[in-house]
Amino acid sequence: MASSGGVGDERLREALLAPAAGKVGEEDLEEIRSVRAFLHHAAEENRRLWYLAGPAIFTSVAQYSLGAITLVFAGHLTTLELDAVSTENNVIAGLALGLTLGMGSALETLCGQAYGAKQLHMLGLYLQRSWIILTAMAVLMLPLYLFAAPILRLFHQDAEIAALAGRLALYMIPQLFAYALNFPIQKFLQAQSKVVAMAAVSAAGLAFHVALSWLLVGPMRMGLVGLAVALNASWWFVVLGQLAYILMGCCPGAWNGFDWLAFSDLFGFARLSLGSAVMLCLELWFYMLLIVIVGNLEDAQVAVAAVSICTNLFGWEIMVFFGFNAAISVRVSNELGAGRPRAARFAILVVLMSSVAIGLVFFAAVLALRDVYGAPFTGSPDVVRAVASLGVVFAFSLLLNSVQPVLSGVAVGAGWQWLVAYINLGCYYLVGIPVGYLIAFPLRGGVRGMWGGMLTGVGLQTVILVAITLRTDWGKEAREASSRIQEWGGSAVAKALDH
Fold it and tell me: Which keywords are on file for this protein (predicted)?
C-alpha cells in the first residue's frame, strides 16, 4: 500500500536523494598559496591515503599471495607442473579474476560516491545487486574451466602444459564462485574505509593457506590436487570471514539485511559493471597474453617458466599499487560524492607522488637482484638464467606500472570506466601487442623483445591518462556524481517509500 504522508513523504524523499554535502565546493579544500601550506595539506592527505592504502596494500598482497604461494609450491614439484599452475592461474583464473574483479569495481564508483554523499542505505543494495550479476557471470564462465585444455591448445600452447592446466582448471571451479562474492564485498568495505577488517581476514586466510598447502603437498603428498584443494579452501575462508564481519552488524546503516529491491535497476547496474570489467580485463589479459605468446617460442617450457616467475613477482608489486588504486578510488569517489572537487584533485597529486617514489625503489631493487630473485621459485639453473636475462625489461615494467594503476583508480572513482576501456583497447592491443610480436618473431628478439615491445602500449596509455586527468573539470565531475547517485538510487528509494 502506498504511503499517504503527503508533505512528510516528500521531505523524506528529498532527504534521501539530496547529496549531503550541499553545493559543489562547499567546505572544499582551500586554495594553496605557499610551499608551507602545500606541505601541510600534503602531509594531511598522505595520512588519509595511507590509512586506506596501508591495509588495502596488505589485503591485495595477501590475497594475491594465495596464488603466488601455490606457484612456489608447484615450482618444487616439476617444471611441467610449475608451467601448468602458472598457465591456469594466469590464463584461466586470470580471465575469471579480470571479469569478476572488474565487474565488482563498479561498486568503487557507486558505493564510494554514495558514502561521500551520506546515502548509506544504498550501499547494501549495491552490494546485493553486484552479487546477483557476478554470480550469473560466474555461471556463464563455467565453459572456460570445463574446456580449458582445448582452449589453451587453440592458442598453440604446449600440449603437455595445456593438458595438465586443463585438468587443474576443473579442480578450481569453486574459486570462480569465491571470486564472484569476494570482490563486491571488498569494494563495499573499502568505500566505508573498513580496510583494517579486510586486512585481518586476509592475513588469517594467508596463514591458513600456507599451513594447508604445506600439509597437503608435503606430508600428505597430494601434489597438484592438494594445491587445488588448499587454494579453493583459502579463498572461501576469506569470503566467509568478510561476510561474517558484515552480518555481525559491523556496517550499520550500510547493511540492513537482504532486500528484494536488489533485483531492481539490474540492467543499468550491469552496464556500469561491464564497463568496469572491460577496463580492467584489457589490462590483466594484456600480461596473460604475454605468457600465451611466449609459449610459441623455442624452448617453450623454460621461456614460460621464466616469464611466469617474473609475472608472479610483478603481480606482488602491482598489488602494492592496487592498494594505492583502492585508496585513491575511495578518496576521489568520496570527495566527489561530498561535492569537494578541489580536494579530489589534490588527493590525486599526492598519491601519484608517493607511488612514483615507491616505483623507483622497486626499479632499483630488481636491477640489483636480477641474478638471484628467480632462485626461490625453481631448482632449474636454466630457468634462473632466463629470469636474470629479463631483469632490465622487468624493472621498466615495474616503474611504468607504479603510475598506471593509480590513474585507473582515479578513473574508477570518477566513473570513467568505458572511456578507459577504449584507451586500453587501443594502447595495449592495437599498439603494444603488435609491436611486441614484431620484435619477438620477425626480428627474433625473443622473450625480452616481446615484453619490451608490449611496454610501448603501457607507456602510451599512461601518457593519455595523465593528460586526461590534468584536463578534467573536477567541479563538473562532482555534479555528475550527484546525478549518478540519484540515477542509480532513485527507483529503489521510490519503491521503499511506496511500501
Answer: Membrane, Transmembrane, Transmembrane helix
Could you give the C-alpha distances from 309 to 82, 160, 219, in angstroms and in order? 10, 19, 26
Question: How far is it, in rounded angstroms, from Cα 428 to Cα 92?
Answer: 20
Nearest to 410 by CA among 484, 485, 344, 350: 344
The CA distance from 425 to 421, in Å, is 6
Angle 389-308-69 from CA coordinates, rounded to 5°: 125
Q: Compute the distance between CA of residue 127 and CA of residue 104 in angstroms, rounded to an integer.
A: 9
As given in the structure block, the three cell numbers for residue 220 are 600428505
User: Measured between alpha carbons, how far is 331 from 42 in angstroms, rounded to an integer?
Assistant: 14
Helix axes 474-497, 300-337, angle to 10 degrees: 80
Number of C-beta neighbours around residue 476 at 10 A: 11
- Non-local (6+) Cβ contacts of 52 within 8 A are 190, 193, 195, 326, 327, 330, 331
SS3 for 443-477, per residue? CCCHHHHHHHHHHHHHHHHHHHHHHHHHHCCHHHH
Distance CA 97, CA 183 (A): 9
Q: What is the pLDDT of residues 207-250, one digit of tens each?
A: 999 999 999 988 888 888 999 999 999 999 999 999 999 999 89
Rounded to 10°, the helix 121-140/93-104 angle is 160
Give the chain's mean pLDDT.
81
Grid coordinates given for 284: 590483466
User: Each residue of 436-470: pLDDT tens digit?
Assistant: 888 888 887 777 888 888 889 888 988 898 888 88
Distance CA 230, CA 252 (A): 34
Furthest CA-CA distance within the chain: 79
Contact between 241 and 188 (Cβ < 8 Å): no
Is 392 exposed, middle or buried, given 0-12, 13-18 or 19+ CB atoms closer than 10 A?
Answer: middle
| Alpha carbon distances (Å) from 435 to 63, 389, 431, 438, 440 | 33, 20, 6, 5, 9
Q: Looking at this protein, which amino acid is placed at residue 142?
A: L
